[in-house]
Every structure is written in structure tokens, then in C-alpha cells.
Amino acid sequence: MVPSLLFEFMLIGLLGVASQWFAWRFRMPAIVVMAVTGLLIGPVFGLINPEQDFGNVYSPLISVAVAIILFEGSLNLNFRELRGIGRPVFRISTIGAFIAWILGSLTAHYVAGLSWAVAFVIGGLFVVTGPTVIMPLLRQAKLKARPAKVLKWEGIIVDPIGALLAVFAFEIITFMTAANPDVSQILLFFAGSIFAVFLGWALGRGLGWMFEMGHVPEFLKSPTVVVVVLFCFTIADVVMHETGLLSVTAMGITLANMGISSVSDMRHFKENISVLLTSTIFIMLTASLEVDTIIQIFNPHIIGYVLLMMFAVRPLSIFLSTIGTKLSFNEKLLVGWIAPRGIVALTVSGYFAGVLTEAGYEDASILTALTFALVIFTVVAHGFSIGWLSKKLNLSNKGNPGALIVGSNPFTVQLAKSLKEANYPSIIVDSSWENLSLARNEGLDFYHGSMLSEQTEHHLDTIPYEYLLTLTHDKAYNSLLCTTFIPEYGRTNVFKVSPFTTFEDNGYSSGLVSQVGGRILFNKKFSLEDLIEKAENGFTVRQTTLSNKFTFKDYKQSKDPETVYLFLIKPSGQLKFFSEEMRTVPAAGDKIVSLTKEKETDSNAGEE
């Protein structure tokens, strides 16, 4: 047995992060790995049972975590993203949610055998998907922009709506079955929901104003946001149960659309907190399940209900609600299939299972098993199928992960051409239209704008590009870009051209700039000026395949000392850019792409 609550809490956190790493390392759906981990340490081996061990702290802990996760997700909902998808998002979140509620309730009654009262409560709840399960899948599948945005917006907006539908259904049931019906209860529900939205909006506006006026110092901004989120959620939930989720969503959307730079700066902190909370909370929920609940999942009525929800209710609600929108058939098919349920469904159903059972609805006792069956079936099915299905429907960014190159000049054009010839996507970004003429003339993909512009964030699709290469003449700008985008691309995938030169440029100290963000590309002795000079004076791109007879050592000896080693292509297709911090040693079968002056003549070299 676990010796203490502290050890148990540490174990849950450790296993949560380990599950995320395992999923990343072996390219598996993170939610599936977390669910299996929770089941193994909980009901399977009986190591822990967080619900019993944490006692009264368990439910508030789950609720607070869900509130923060939902708030973090809503911070990404900028209304500018709705251009072109506003109509389908609105339809899915309203008409689609209503259709899913009605069809889900009918299915729960006729297939799962629930009474009408319990069926309509659980039918309302199961319209949710949620950022805790949608976001990991979107990161995994690398969908094209439109279906990804539709799924993201739906997941965050419908989460509180599903909880509210369940509360609304329960209030209607209470009203209709009461000996002395009191219509004020229904009015109180609507008043509580309106209050929750207003509270979230007011706190969002107030917090944004304080940040803009400088009333909160930088080091207190993140803690202040977390505390205000908890305040917002708690007050709304006290006034009307389950409206806290609606309130924090309204607060997040309000802040996201105020255009406050400090809120954008905190987004990476919130994402880190969200990933940690998602990992730990999902493991806590699955580890708290009883063996009897898991056995109950295999009830034919429950399995039949889950299958109908996945293959009939969800697709119908999407196809019917998106009639007349610009979504293509393939996009409707994908969105109609992807609807995993997660933390909100598990937590809210647990609450209603207790409330309905106390109200005399004995069939509510199977709600936990029913919910978990839907969660585990959808998480596994959608987690393992989204990548395959999106490729089949031509809705994923196909091909190898490429590079986003900042700065248009003769060298970057050569580099982009070499990537294109090697079948790796690339795009050149520059704020100068004149500089971009080089890329345009070569037929390369380009984007006119600044990487730090908000317009670029909304209009440039960065999903196909795994690497960021900064090669502008402004060393400080290169370092700033690297520092800004490290959280998005990862520290090992962000590069900058060498800041070292024989003279001081633009008044900046190369020694200082070299210490800020990003790994140095190629070799620190080659400045951008050196690279451009080589590209303009006879150096050409060559691709060579190493072998057991022609090793990397032989390759270097056969080359001019001024050769620039650009990137390496592994037999698996993995792309690696050369850097002095590069740990990979080129081996037999690897292809080396370089900018060199002389053509190889060695018969053992596989030059192409």
C-alpha cells in the first residue's frame, strides 16, 4: 500500500508526466496511455484509490483542475479564427448540441434502459467533448487548419453547455415530479446561467484593464490569473451548481479577444499547467474506478448504447447541423467521428449519479459505468483512428515535417530549394516584399509578414513545419524569435544563424546575443554574410549518401574546408539540421546535404 497521501500525490504526478512522455516517444494517443496507467495502478493492481484516499478533498481538486483546463483552452478562442468557420461552429454548438441531446437521450432510454428522467440528464451531459481530450488528439494528428479549428472551438464551447443541459434537465425533472411545482426554480436556473456569463465577462474585462494599466507587476500576473479563475469558478458554482465552467469559459474568451500582450505571454505557462493537470486528473479518475464498475461496462445494453452514440448519434448531429455550411463532406465525416469524452463527462456524471440516486432513481447507479464505457471507447477508438482517417480523407498535412525559414536572401532560397528537392516542405517568411522576390522567382512557398505579428499568427499555417530557422540580418531579432517560439517548436527544433562576426553589427554584442534562445545553425564560424557570399559565388547544393566504405570522416576529408553542412536525412526519413550542438553522428545510409564548391569524384560516395 502507498505509505502516505504525499507519496500518492507524487506518484500520480510522476505517472501522469511519464504517460505523456511515453505517448510522445512512441507516437501514441496520450489519453489512451493515461487511461491505461490509471486502470493499472487503481482497479487492476489496487495500488491506490484517490477518491477514497483523498476523501473530501477529491471532488474540489477535480473541479478546480477542470476549471483551469477549460479556462486555458478558452484563452485560445480568438474570434478572428472564426473567419470561414463561424457558421459551422455556431451550428454545431447550438443545433448540433440540441440534436445530440435529444438523440442521446432517446438512445439512453431505449437501448441502455434508463428511465426518461435519467436519460435526459445523461443525454445532455454527453454532448461534451472537451479540451482535455481534443487538444492532445489535434497535436497528434496535425490536421489541416479548418477541421482542427472546428473541433477545438466545439470542444471548449460545448463543454459548459453539456453540463448546463444536464442541470437544466434535472431542474425540469424536479419541477415536473414535485408535489407543489415551483416555476421559480426554472427561472433561477436561467438567472444563474446569465449571472455566470456576466461574472466571467466582468472579471475578464477587469483583469485585462488592470494588466493594461500596469496595476499588476509582471511577476504577479500568472498567480493573479489563477486566483481570479478559481474565484470566478467558485462564486458561479455556489450560485448555481455546474455554471462555474460556463463562467471561466466566458472569462477566458473575454481575455483572449482584448488583445493584451501579457495574456499572450502567459499562454505558455497556462499550457504547461493544463498538460500537468490533464495528466494527473485523468489518472486520478481512472484509478478511482471500482472493479465492479469495469465489469459492468461489458453489459450488452451499455455496449450497444456506446456504439450507437459513436456511429449514429454523433454523425447525425454533425451532418444535420452543418447543412448549408461550407464544410466539405470529408470534413463533416471527420468531425462527425471525432468526439472523445473526458474529464468533464466523468466528473459531472459522478455528481448526478449521486443526486439522482438520492432522488429515488435507482437506475442512475449505472451512470458511472455508462460514462466510463463511453469515455474509454471513444478515447481509444478516436485516439488511434484520427491520424489514419485524416490522411485517408486528405485532411492532414501530408509528407515529411519541414522547416519555416525566416528571412529571404540568396542563401535561404538555396536552402529552401534543397529542402523542396529532398521532399521536405519549407516556407520563407519575410516582412520585405522586395526580399521575397527571390523566393517568388524560384517558385518557393513564401509568406509576407512579420513572425511576431498577430496577423501572422492567424493567417500562417505553421502545422506542416517542425523546425524554425531564423536567418535575418538582425541578430537580436533572430534571438528574439527563437526565444519566443521555443515553447511552440521545442528547444531542439529552433535555430538561428551564427551571431559571431569580426565586427560589431548594429551596436549589439554578439557575445550577448549568442546566449539568448536557439541553437546555432551549421557552424558558428559562418555568419549570414558568409553564407550569402557562398550562395552567390559558385557554391552549390550537393546530396551524398554515406556507406560503410565512405564514412562521414571520408566525406569531410573529400570536401573543401569552406563547405557548409546543411542537413542530414536519416534512412527513416527523419530530418536533422547540422549544428555544433548536434549529437547525432552521421552513419552509413544517411544522406548529407551540403553547400559546397567542389563536386565529389570519390567512387564510393553516393552523390545524387
TrEMBL record:
It is a multi-pass membrane protein. InterPro entries: Cation/H_exchanger_TM, Na+/solute_symporter_sf, NAD(P)-bd_dom_sf, RCK_N. It comes from the Bacteria. The chain crosses the membrane at residues 6-24, 31-48, 60-77, 89-108, 114-135, 156-179, 185-207, 219-239, 245-263, 275-296, 302-321, 333-354, 366-389. Keywords: Antiport, Cell membrane, Ion transport, Membrane, Transmembrane, Transmembrane helix, Transport. Residues 22-391 form the Cation/H+ exchanger transmembrane domain. It is found in: Cell membrane. Residues 404-484 form the RCK N-terminal domain. This is Cation:proton antiporter. It comes from Oceanobacillus locisalsi.
